[in-house]
Amino acid sequence: xxxxxxxxxxxxxxxxxxxxxxxxxxxxxxxxxxxxxxxxxxxxxxxxxxxxxxxxxxxxxxxxxxxxxxxxxxxxxxxxxxxxxxxxxxxxxxxxxxxxxxxxxxxxxxxxxxxxxxxxxxxxxxxxxxxxxxxxxxxxxxxxxxxxxxxxxxxxxxxxxxxxxxxxxxxxxxxxxxxxxxxxxxxxxxxxxxxxxxxxxxxxxxxxxxxxxxxxxxxxxxxxxxxxxxxxxxxxxxxxxxxxxxxxxxxxxxxxxxxxxxxxxxxxxxxxxxxxxxxxxxxxxxxxxxxxxxxxxxxxxxxxxxxxxxxxxxxxxxxxxxxxxxxxxxxxxxxxxxxxxxxxxxxxxxxxxxxxxxxxxx
Amino acid sequence: xxxxxxxxxxxxxxxxxxxxxxxxxxxxxxxxxxxxxxxxxxxxxxxxxxxxxxxxxxxxxxxxxxxxxxxxxxxxxxxxxxxxxxxxxxxxxxxxxxxxxxxxxxxxxxxxxxxxxxxxxxxx
Lengths: 362, 124
Known about the structure:
The structure holds two protein chains of two kinds.
Chain A: H1 11-16, E1 20-24, E2 27-32, H2 36-45, E3 48-51, E4 56-61, H3 65-72, E5 84-91, E6 97-107, E7 110-115, H4 120-129, E8 136-139, E9 144-150, H5 154-161, H6 165-169, E10 176-181, E11 184-189, E12 198-204, H7 208-217, E13 221-222, H8 225-234, H9 268-277, E14 281-288, E15 299-302, E16 305-316, E17 321-329, E18 337-342, E19 345-352
Parallel strand pairs in A: 3-13
Antiparallel strand pairs in A: 1-2, 3-9, 4-7, 4-8, 5-6, 6-7, 9-12, 10-11, 11-12, 14-17, 14-19, 15-16, 15-18, 16-17, 18-19
Helix pairs in contact in A: 2-8
Chain B: E1 9-10, E2 15-20, E3 23-28, H1 30-36, E4 39-43, E5 50-51, E6 56-62, E7 66-70, E8 75-80, H2 90-93, E9 102-106, H3 116-123
Antiparallel strand pairs in B: 1-2, 2-3, 3-9, 4-6, 5-8, 6-7, 8-9
């Protein structure tokens, strides 16, 4: 296979701004513009934006589209009203995941889906193979761009740049609207991947650079993939390929809340079994005392015995310490003291809720 | 363009050395800290350890990578920068000053090391 690397419509803007470009999921993407820590802090304290145009955007139309999506996704699509979205999974027949996704309902006969860049081709092939419902599937990825604007003041900044600020400001979490922001026609969703409020804006590819530049002029910091990974770990959000894959049960990753208990779907048999019987390992959070963080695959030990392995690790500027996700034997309880192998030395840590930013229960 | 002070000596692996009498202060260059990104931890050696030229004497951990640091010349470690335990970011903000790593009593020389102009040619 010929290895080709793609560029998003914002590539030139990133390079001009000093973005350090790295290959990611087949695209040249900015890992950072300046300090990854400063970019993380911008999102937690004010507003930052990410080029997420590499994520794939699919459009589904047809009379039986709801029926089709109920079959190939885990969440209850029937619960969506028009102009609402939901986090969901694309299960496989064996109880693992093809991908994790967002599904948006536009109308009873039109839905959209955003999927991971790394799974783009795999997802499209899988979805088409399941389409016995006469649904038309259109890949809109190359024609469009996607910018995630995130942070406590992000929604206000976007709304103030919109031709109809009230329709943006009034959107609830996972609500979507069509509108115009800074002159660009956008499809806007009140969602993100950072644990902060904000919007994900999908616009025509040719409008992306001007929209990005206007957001920057209005105080939104440019942020790269480095800070995006830290922010999603701090917020307890999984990343496909780390916390989810074709083999792992999403029940082990703690995603039972996006899996319908009432409908039948691809792989619902093995997933229901995993829900009923439990899984041998469960995804947990690991919090370090120091600022150090482990490599993926590092052993987690309790009392000298290996109880699991790390699947993501970051330094958290927000909490001032290292954090990790790890799949641990299901009998390991939150609050357990552990050690994690950091390049040959045991570093002390504690098993904690993977929702690192959540306030402890009183 | 990174900062490369004219009065220091350099290695291809991006360490710098400042010689005062028989004591050499060693750190990593501005170019190195920029490439590593935000530094969160430095695994330091013990005082008294004897280093040969090219020996790894510690690791620098940043938010995105881990890198070994190497002795530019031979000597015995007389002091480590204890401040970096709590303020590892000093290596980012002041790599040639408060962000120094170790001091050694020299037994080797800096003759084989790069001057600023030669280092600039490889580090930009």
